[in-house]
Structures are given as C-alpha cells and as structure tokens.
C-alpha cells in the first residue's frame, strides 16, 4: 500500500521522543524525592501510553482514523494495566534489589548515574519499541485481515499477562504457599506467562502497521528488540538466574516450557 506520509512520520518521531523523555524526567524527579527508583517500572507502561496519545494527536488528518483509534486504545489499555499492576505490587515495599545492585556500582553520584543508566535508557527503549504504534497512525486505507489478526494476537497477549498476574497474586496471598514455586494455571504451561504476553502484544501491534510495507519495514525492529529483551535480556534470563537456587525450581524448569506455552510434562 502506498501513500505512507514519511515527512509527517519523521516529525512524529520527534514528538514521541519528547513524550517519552518527559515521562521519564518526571518519574526521575519523583524517584529522587521518594528515594525509590523502582517506580521507573511504573513509568514503562505510562511512557508507551503517552507516546500513543501524542502520536494520535500529531497524526490528525493522516492515515486511517479507525486504525489510529484502535492502535492508540490497545497501547493505552496495555500500558495502563501494566502500570497499575506494578504500582499495586510494589506498594509498601522498599527499593528493588535490581536497582540497589545497579546503583551500588555508580562511579559518582547515584542519582546522576540512575538518570543516565535507567531513566534515559528506558526512555530510549520506549521510543524504539513504540515504532509500530507511531507508524500505524500514518498507514492509509482500511484495516485488513492482517491488522485484525494483530488485534487478536494482542488480546491473547493481554489475556496471558492479566490472568498470569492475577493467578500469581492469589498464590502469593495464601500463607500456605510461602516458599513454594508457583506452578499452577498458566504458570504450568509456561514459566513466564507475562513475558509471553508481552511478546504477543508487541507482535500484534506490529501487525497493525503491516498494511503499509513502508510502515512495516521501519517498525519491525520493535518486536524483534522486545523479543530479545524478554527472552535473552533483562526479562526471562535475569529472573531465572535469581530463581535458580530456590527449592523445587529445577523440577519446575524440567516440566514447564521456558517461554512458549505447552502442556506440562509429567512430574
């Protein structure tokens, strides 16, 4: 499909970068005041929501309105659900050990180091990963079967995240499960239902941009980068390293898929 508005999209890239930067700088100011850098995890979903809303506004008069509304709504629903979940989960807790370990290596001022290595880096990732959300705003023509299949894939991903998070929260709330490994529900099909959900969400959003070859070409880096982060980067790999020494975890690994869902092996 032709007619992709390259000039308007290029300007959108700047607006999106500004939106991500503002979210991260405001979050940094709140974190310094509160002494808790873990709140940057809440800003992750908010950053994507801000980029989607700003891109929708910037693309007025461009692209296909139903597609623009759909991709903005899907991104906001995913981002705000994630931010709300992380905020509730972290309420009443101190600093995240991951950030304590990172900032312990700071060569100078911890806050300056955190700004550079956490907030600005995450802001850059929000901008990069959100490329399909930005590009889809400028895709002309009606939604195709490919775009609707992306919406279905997004829904599958959101379902895995929401259901997996709810199941884990109920498991942890039961005192009888203290010290045990969660291996029920979706967690018996994959060790990372929330990361698999993220994987589906971002490949789904990418498909919403695929009705224009130019938009697909410029944004395919997004789901690829997100997939690498989830599977090889700061997602699955780091969490499993942290869990490796817990009683029962080796057996859980032996019977449960590491990422893509499948029925559990017999104990």
TrEMBL record:
Keyword Ribonucleoprotein among UniProt keywords: no
Alphabetical list of PROSITE patterns matching this protein: S5A_REDUCTASE
Keyword Transmembrane included in the entry's annotation: yes
Transmembrane portions of the chain: 6-32, 39-59, 65-83, 113-133, 201-231
Domain of life of the native organism: Bacteria
Keywords linked to the UniProt accession: Membrane, Transmembrane, Transmembrane helix
Gene Ontology annotations for the cellular component aspect, listed alphabetically: membrane
UniProt xrefs under Pfam families: DUF1295
Cited PANTHER family: 3-OXO-5-ALPHA-STEROID 4-DEHYDROGENASE, STEROID 5-ALPHA REDUCTASE C-TERMINAL DOMAIN-CONTAINING PROTEIN
Full protein name: Uncharacterized protein
Organism: Streptomyces malaysiense
């Amino acid at each position: 499909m032709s007619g992709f508005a390259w000039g308007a999209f290029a300007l959108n890239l700047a607006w999106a970068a500004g939106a991500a930067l503002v979210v991260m700088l405001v979050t940094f100011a709140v974190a310094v005041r509160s002494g808790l850098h873990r709140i940057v995890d809440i800003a992750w979903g908010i950053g994507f929501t801000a980029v989607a809303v700003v891109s929708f506004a910037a693309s007025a008069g461009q692209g296909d309105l139903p597609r623009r509304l759909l991709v903005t709504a899907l991104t906001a629903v995913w981002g705000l659900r994630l931010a709300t979940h992380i905020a509730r989960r972290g309420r009443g807790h101190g600093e995240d050990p991951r950030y304590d370990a990172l900032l312990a290596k700071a060569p100078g001022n911890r806050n300056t180091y955190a700004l550079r290595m956490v907030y600005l880096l995450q802001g850059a990732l929000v901008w990069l990963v959100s490329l399909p959300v930005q590009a889809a705003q400028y895709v002309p023509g009606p939604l195709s079967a490919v775009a609707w299949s992306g919406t279905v894939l997004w829904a599958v991903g959101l379902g895995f995240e929401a259901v997996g998070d709810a199941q884990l929260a109920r498991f942890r709330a039961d005192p009888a499960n203290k010290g045990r490994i969660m291996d029920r529900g979706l967690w018996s099909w994959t060790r990372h239902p929330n990361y698999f959900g993220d994987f589906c969400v971002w490949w789904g959003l990418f498909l919403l941009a695929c009705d224009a070859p130019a938009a697909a070409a410029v944004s395919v880096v997004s789901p690829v980068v997100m997939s690498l982060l989830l599977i090889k980067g700061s997602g699955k790999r780091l969490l499993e390293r942290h869990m490796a020494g817990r009683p029962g975890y080796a057996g859980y690994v032996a019977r449960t898929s590491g990422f893509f869902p499948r029925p559990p092996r017999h104990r």
